[in-house]
Amino acid sequence: MDDDCQILDVNIDIGGRVIYTSKLIAEVDPPSLFAEIVTEAIEEYAQSALNLSDIDEDADEEDLNEDDPIKVEAQRLIALIKSIKCTGRDRSAELLKFLQKSSITLKSLHSISSPIFRTGITIKIGKPKAPMASSDPKPKVNPFAIMMGAENAKELRFITPPPQQLTPNLDVQIRTGLYEHLIHIKLGYYNPDQKYVLETNVGKITNALCMIEKHWHKFFYKEFPNISEKCFNYSLIQLTAQCNRNTARKSEKLKIELVISHITALTTLSWTMFSSAKAIKKSLDVFKGDIAKVCSLLTDKKLSMLGHNSILSQKPVTKVFKSLPSYVQLDEGNNEFYVSIPPSTKKHSKQRGQPSAKMTSIRHAIKSIAQSLRHSEDYVVRHITDEEMGIIDEAFLCEGGTVSLTSADRTFYRTSFKTELAKGLDGLCISLFGRSSSIGPSCLFVWKTPMLHGDAHAGNVQLAINECRDILPKKVSAESARHFNNILRGIAKVPAKVRAALTSYLFGGELNVTGDDADTYYEFVENLAGGLPIDDSWIVDGRAFNSRGGKGINSTKFEEFWEVCRSIILPTATTEERRHNGCLHASAVLSIPDLRRQAIESLENKVKQNVLAVMPPVPSIEWVRLQFVPSNDTVNKAAQMSGRLGCKRAAQKRTLRKAHVDQHWVNAMTRYILLWLIELKKATDGVLFLGQDDKAKIPVGDSVPISTGVRANVRRSIVNADTEDSLTAMDHDFHVVNLVCSATLVCNIPDSIGGSFFMGDEESGNGEMFYTLRDAIFDPSTVFDHTAQLIDCLRRLDKRPFVLVLQTDGGPDHSIKFANTKNAMVALFVKLDLDHLVVLRGAPNGSAYNKIERLMSPANFALTNVSTKRGVMPDWAEKLMKNCNAMAEVRKTNERQEKERERARARIVQLDELKVRRDIIALVTEYVQAVLREMVVVQQNPMNLILETVESVATISKGVLAFIGIDVDEVIDLGDVSADIAMEEGQRQTRSTTITRSVITSQREKAVEISEQDFRAAYDASIKEPMDAIGSRLKRVVVSGKSAHVTPRVGPSVEKELHEILLKIDPLYDKSYRTAEEAKKMPALVAWYAKHVISHPYCLSIQKCNDVSCCQPCRSPAGIRPLVMQRQPTPRLDDKNPQRNNHFLSRDEALRLFEGKPKAVTDLTDLPSKAMDEAKHDQKEKGNRDKEVNIRLKLRSWDHKKVRSTVICFHCNKPRCIFSRELDDEYYAAAKVLKRTMESISGYSCGDLIFDDNDPISDVLAQRQNLTCESKVETAYYNVDGRSSFVTVPVCIHCGERGSSDFLLQQSELEARNKTGGKQCYPICIECLEDGRNPVPRSNNANKSQKRKEDRASKTAEAAKRKKAS
Predict the structure, then answer these.
(1) What is the pTM of this model?
(2) Residue 689 in 3-state DSSP?
(3) pLDDT tens digits for 955-973?
(4) Which residues does 1214 contact at the CB level (< 8 Å), separation at least 6?
(5) What whole-number distance in Å separates Cα of residue 465 and Cα of residue 447?
């Protein structure tokens, strides 16, 4: 046996019984050999069954003994072979001829579409089940796949259309169009067999289209090539309409047999040869869909031509469906009807306003029915009840609990439903059977039919109608009973069991009652039916909020729980009118689970305080949710909600996001790190993954509450249902105070990359949430503060990792390009004694991809629809705060106030010293006063004696005062004389020390008051109230069964330790150093970086070295240390795999290629922004070069008058200028060289240098290099006064196109169009103007008169536009 052949198993069975088993050597063309096998196998079976040596194949059935069943069976099998006919053009061919066709392969022999399969003979062909010996060589080719039509072809080929003719006939035109259509949809072939099948099928389709073209008017009721609206998307019909008629068509009668034959030909097209060609499956499906549309057109014509004996051709009689031609009346006595509805082809028009509740319910019901039909089999009957139509009493309740649907409403609703259903369902062909009756509900049945109706369609429809008639009485009875139950429930408060008993008695004739109260129910129904007195106590409302235990209407066993819920919700549900403290305006509950937890806590406290004897029953979370008022009254779920708690949920919406060019690269880098973390986690527990970020600032109002700005998209807050707009806040954001919520996330590390890196599940997750609130004015976030918070979180969790990965955003307090951020990370690395620290930075505008952002959503639970304001400060502080309009002004106000306090404290010291001096002076002057009083009393003492005495006293006092350091002159100025003293000039004066003391006391009291006005302390006290209120809400946030940790602000001691660590490394360290230039002032730290740190713009890696004098010994186990110290390579594009265009290598592939290459961890070759930076750098270099050339050649900033010639770019067709300083002999010589050079090169492109800068010609002829095809035409190109040697043609400054004044608009045309703004502008073409490009002004000088004219014209046009729109 040849090695290239394959042994195949051949099994033939009839009716499940194997009659032949053999092996066949597979050949490229085996059907001729296999035909004999099939024939001989059946003959052998017949002979063995008859036990005969031979059989006369030509024997007639009459020659056989009818009593011998074996002979009859043998003759049947022989006749079976002769009776098998083929489909297609060769309908008379027998089985043998069918098998001998060159296009038949083994696969077609056992395909369900072959004529063999339809006879009950099954042929199974396949590879042997026994495995091949290991020593057998691997076949070079697969003949079995070749024979089965599954070649692994290298190239898809298409059928070439026939050569064009001068006057091709219609058949050639359509066939050519079909071949071009196949090329357009990319449907070709891989082998000659597929080509043969494709050509055969195209021929059948061509015949059908030629027939349609011949009878065009009978199909579309229009003249060729016009078609009806519904066939606009029929591609094959459109193809036919594009053909040209060479001769006029004569009117001929269209026979139904011709239509049916073409339907049969199109529905029996064989595509089995393409079953394994998966590459062209979509193209084949598109072509099949085009053929199906043609079949649908033919089928519709066939139905309209059917005779009167068919069910589908009876005269239409309808009310709702009267516009449908397929509506027929079956039985006038029973008002039975049948209708076939094709798929919907009309697009739903957009209606203004909101649809009514009834229309919303109808559309939802039709959508539900369509979804159910799509998953059902064809001709499977489905009964449409009122409930499935959407007529649910609970969905249309009025106030008071009564049903709003009257009898007229129900009739109108059913009619509206049928009207909507008559429009058809998307992608479904359906049939309806119904019976309309004036008594009882109308019954409607629906089933799905195939898109292409076969010969058995009419029979299947009749079977479906018979099934509907059989089950109709049962369905009518069930619907009537349901309606009776609903009506009884609406007019009387009858319990459910009583209603069930009445329904069973009235519609079934018997009482089917079970349970302990069966006898009582039986007696009640019998008395009610017989007109006897009944027990009124039975007639109660069974719907009254699920009454329990006989406690009465509207009471339940959860009544205590509902009361507690109301006390929690209603006083605090509204953010403005109802509040639970002076600074926070928000709902008291975060969610329904939070409401349930608070209610349980309140009930437990009441039990502890003996207010309640036992703990009341507690409902489930879902049962609590059903006690709310529905937010949307039109949905079906609203019927389940009782509204007991009088609250509903509401929400606000807004979102925005922007992408960065490096985001894909950063995502790949992050994936590398996460895979490394997962691998580490499986080996050790000493690894942690953390994220840090600040949430958006939380606004805090001053005197009025300001919204936090958090408005959830889905989650709604719980508000008072009686208030129409309870979620309100101030309509402005005039506030100064903000809170900062710093978040730290200890991420869960899953077992695979598809797991959760957030909190994990409740059982195995190890994520933790930390929030810290601070004031944004006096306590802003810094990188050292974030680092201190991280250390505090690890202490609280008692974690000591040796590998830590920190993911942050690229904000100013986290950006690793700043020196202070790197310093903080070094201090963290040393403080925690880490072996490896990795810091990941997100791409700009890509913070949404960071894991820490997952922590912001739970925080939004506590901040959703919340309004806050600060506490009240003293009047003096409020007065100062009132003048502040920004946070910087508040800081300046605090600085000024501190200076005032310093001056006040200094004034207090000064006044205290002054008071002491005054007290001493008062003692001395008191002595003087005593002496004077005594002398005045003695009247006989002459005045001169008194003056001498005073002088002597003053002399003594002067000595005393001088001894204690007080000037004696102050005695006279501040003395206190209680009596009048006559002076030398005869005047009398009075002095009092009490006046001076009161002034000092007053000044001191005022200074003390100012010194005690601590603005910062008053501000901190006022901001503490909203901070504590929000913090208490954050503590109640629960994710994966874990509550959030709200930690206080870490003190300055931790930050001080971090700075001391850096001082030990470099004594020149200064915490104010921030930039890279300032970092050079710390040489020891720079050297430390070079030894331990590797970084690029989005990642920072710090590792311990092997120097014991520098770093502590590594704490990680030696067995996994290589993995611990593994630095991940930067992402590189997968260029070798064309299917992964613009995708990066996987981590395993990157490690395999780049492990051991130090430069791989910092290689930024494929970083998109780096490539853009290089382009910007190149552009900058070209700009600098142009400046140098301009200065060197004295071109006066590339002046207009220095332009000598132009060259045209062969890409954009824009003229580019050639400059020269003078028109001298050097120029003319250089111009000749320029001309020869331009003739020798293939073309000039914008930015190319015709002469390099080192060429001597470049000293005479200059051109600008910083130009691209996107650059505008150089302004120096345009003519100016004084440049007579070179005149240019006006062109558009944007695109360089030239043209007439109708196309190229210059100054006069632009002024006529009011496009200049009063300025002189360069030319612009119509196309650029229509594309939104604006005219470019030559200068900023404007003609004010022209500008006013254009402004008036613009306002007039805008007013006319608004008037037209209104």
Answers:
(1) 0.46
(2) strand
(3) 655 565 565 555 555 444 4
(4) 1208, 1246, 1269, 1271, 1273, 1291, 1295, 1296
(5) 10
